[in-house]
Design goal:
The protein has six helices and no strands. The protein has 137 residues and is an all-alpha fold.
Length: 137
């Protein structure tokens, strides 16, 4: 027999399927949400055997579990795709940094004097800016 938690967790979907199978059920019949009472109501209204009704509920439960399992698999696959995309982007960024470093290293080797002058100038400008900021405080 379907358990109460599963039944209540999927109540809206279950109500639609119940009305589809047994159109004579009213909102009042379905309002309670208690499995045993609902089986009794369906049995009284339709004359269907309790075993058949319980089997229908079991099928609803297994369909819901299968859908939940598929949703979990889909979420795992999506998470794996996202992780793969992050890894690929990280690899591309690392490759770009390595290329930039190699280019700077090549440039420093080819023009050491100019490179030293540029670094010295950048250091002086940075020092002046930091000094002005600290003085204004």
């Amino acid at each position: 027999m379907i358990n109460q938690q599963t039944f209540q967790g999927n109540w809206d979907e279950v109500k639609g399927k119940l009305r589809s199978r047994w159109s004579s059920l009213t909102d009042e019949d379905l309002f309670n949400g208690n499995v045993d009472q609902l089986v009794g109501v369906i049995q009284r209204r339709t004359g269907e055997a309790r075993e058949d009704i319980e089997q229908f509920f079991e099928q609803l439960s297994s369909d819901g579990a299968a859908a939940f399992s598929r949703a979990g698999e889909t979420a795992r696959a999506g998470a794996q795709q996202a992780a793969d995309a992050v890894q690929e982007t990280s690899n591309q960024a690392a490759a770009a940094v390595r290329e930039g470093y190699a280019e700077v290293e090549r440039m420093v080797r080819e023009r050491p004097a100019e490179s030293l002058a540029v670094c010295f100038g950048a250091g002086v400008i940075t020092g002046v800016i930091v000094g002005l900021v600290l003085r204004s405080r």
